[in-house]
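Hey, I was hoping to borrow your eyes for a little while. No rush at all, and the record is pasted right below.
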Amino acid sequence: MKMTKALIAVIFSASILLFSCKPKDASIQTSVNANLAASPECNGATATVEDGIATLTGEVKDDACKSLAATKAVEVKGVKSVVNNLTTSMSGAVTDATMNSGNELAQGVTDATNDFPTVKTSVNNGEITLTGSIKRSDLKTLMQSLNSLHPTKINNKLTIQ
């Protein structure tokens, strides 16, 4: 009888330790928002976290800031993936994207994603949509390459490995 109680106590203690080591959504959310606040470019972006998935909302000044915010969120331990619902506040100025023809943008996207075979892309009306998966360490490089093409928008639907 004493052995059974001791065994139950050990199992209970072990399960508490296992579950307490996993980052909680609330602490992940606090960390993501702190990471966003530390970057002035991400001003206007906020995050909510559920089941390790960070959802970014708010308005930032341009697509580079939008991508940076996603990168800042991915850097936080415990974030499994990012849903980037940020919007941009373009000031109506003519951007490089309006001068970039569809064929040039599509070719640039193909060139930029050559080294990332698990990333699938589509280009439509100056918008790039990313699907598939990517290693966390490769995301920043890919996003910088795509932002240099000056698309009107990047829809990041990637799963982070």
Remarks:
- Confidence is low (pLDDT under 50) at residues 91-99.
- The radius of gyration is 20 Å.
